[in-house]
Amino acid sequence: MGHDHSHSHAGAGPGNEKRLAGALVLTAAFLVVEVVGGVLTNSLALLSDAAHMFTDVTALAIALAAMRIGRRPVDERRSYGYGRFEILAAAVNAVMLFGAALYILYEAWSRFRSPPEIHSWGMFGIASVGLVVNFIALKLLAGGRDESLNVKGAYLEVWSDLLGSIGVMVAAVAIYFTDWRWLDPLVAVAIGFWVLPRAWKLFRETMHILLEGTPADVDVTGLRKAILETEGVRDLHDLHVWTLTSRRHVLTAHVVIAPGADRQAVLRSLSSSLREKFELAHTTLQIEDEAGAQAHGPMHGPAPTADNHDDHSQH
């Protein structure tokens, strides 16, 4: 049996940690401002944005803790380390986003029936500050969104907050000139419906990883073909590919070699090919001869298929 292991934790570097910490400080400071402002101006749009901002602060704190925990070294109880804690944190973030969106929609329904008085200029001023804060946080997180699911989740949340700030500003101006107070809950509903599908997408992505589904960016058909075309390989079975954490995929397989083939040479060739062509640095390959493979039962078992999602690249 051969191993080719790389224990780098993609997505958990100091750069991403600094991005998350900076975004956390900004959003936590503005959360206080937005809650007070929402109460004083009686704006549901501001309060709903504050509710979403609260999930941002919590999500960023969880993500930061997950990143630090994920750097812990492997031990006897965690042979793969703690990197998958990042995925659990991303799943929690998705659930919190979903809950916040549902609350916004529920509260908006009540206000549609009886729109209260709203202080539009205060609403506009606070939303303007939020726009600046969210833009800075977005720039901080943009560099790491393709490296880590945690950063990606935080980036999506801040992006939705930025759009929410713009919506609140537009509504505040319209309410000032027209007194259409129903625009306030309407913006809140728009924020809720914008958040819901993105929360679902992030949740679906994390569940796919936790269920050890085949990574969407791995071409399993091409992978199987490349292994079978390697010199000295006769057959292949028990092929499994899954994701431990962001950008860290794992492969295990039983490889049947032709009579007289050099086991070590085949292993080196396979390890090199998987690393260079498919970016699979953590592989476990069991080399078998035909007699040993037949003892395990029929070969050519069902190949795992990639569960393709839009914009679901881990790289």
Residue stretches low in confidence (pLDDT < 50, at least 5 long) are: 5-12, 297-315
* SS field, number of helical segments: 9
Helix content: 55-70%
CATH class of the largest domain: Mainly Alpha
> How far apart are the termini?
28 Å
Using the coordinates shown, work out and report the CATH topology of the largest domain: Alpha-lytic protease prodomain-like
Mean pLDDT: 77
Structural class: alpha+beta
CATH architecture of the largest domain: Up-down Bundle
The backbone outline, from C-alpha atoms, is elongated
Taken in chain order, the helices and strands follow as EHHHHHHHEEHEH
The neighbouring-strand order within the major sheet is 1-4-3-2
Number of domains: 2
Beta strand count: 4
Which band does the percent of strand residues land in? 5-15%
Tags for this entry?
elongated, 315 residues, alpha+beta, 4 strands, 4-stranded mixed β-sheet, 62% helix, 9 helices, 2 domains, single chain, Alpha-lytic protease prodomain-like, disordered C terminus, Alpha-Beta Plaits
What does this structure look like?
The protein is α+β, with helices and mostly antiparallel strands and 315 residues long. It has two domains: 7-210, Cation efflux protein transmembrane domain (Alpha-lytic protease prodomain-like, Up-down Bundle); 220-295, Alpha-Beta Plaits (2-Layer Sandwich). It is built from nine helices and four strands; from the N terminus they run βαααααααββαβα. The protein has helices at residues 14-41, 44-70, 85-113, 120-142, 149-178, 183-210, 220-228, 263-278, 290-295; strands at 2-4, 233-245, 248-257, 282-288. A hairpin with a 2-residue loop joins β2 and β3 (248-257). α3 (85-113) runs parallel beside α5 (149-178) and α4 packs antiparallel against α5 (149-178). It is elongated. The protein starts with a strand and ends in a 20-residue tail after the last helix. Mean pLDDT is 77; it is low at 5-12 and 297-315.
